[in-house]
Amino acid sequence: MVVYFIQRPSDGAIKIGVSNSIRRRVYQLKIESGEDLKVLGIFAGDRKTEKELHAKFDDLRIVSEWFTPDALLLEYISQKEECLELSSFQIERYIKVVDIGKERYEWLESHPEYSFPVAARAVIDTWMRQVPTSAAVQGTH
Prior knowledge:
The protein is α+β, with helices and mostly antiparallel strands. It folds into two domains: 2-79; 88-130, no CATH class. The protein has six helices and five strands. It has helices spanning 22-33, 47-56, 71-79, 88-100, 102-109, 118-130, and strands at residues 2-7, 14-19, 38-44, 61-63, 66-67. It has a five-stranded antiparallel β-sheet with strand order 3-1-2-5-4, sandwiched between helices.
C-alpha cells in the first residue's frame, strides 16, 4: 500500500490518498477529473498514515481528500525523504513494480535495462521489505 500526493492542474489542489494499486487509482482519478493529473510523490504507507496526513493538513482541506497547495504542504512533500517526485515515466515504472510484486521486482533488478534511479530504488526496496511474498507470482517472469 502506498500514500500518494496527486495534483490537479486546473486549480492546483492536491489529493492525499492511499491505494493498493496506485496505477489503477491514478487512472480512476484522471477519468473522474477529466484532467492530466500530476503525481507529486508516493511512499510506502497505510490508511493510518493517510489519516494522520489529513489531520496534519486539515486547515488546508478544500473538500474530502483534496487540499490547497499551500507552501506547508508542498514543503512537506518535497522534504519527505522517502517521498519521490518522479517523472511520469519513472512513476509508471514504480507503479509497475508495486503492482507486479516482490518476485518480479527481484527478476527486474537482475536485468539492467530495467534500472531505477537510486532514490526510487531505496523507496521500492523499503516497500518490498514490507510486502509478503506471493505464491501466485513465484517462479514467473
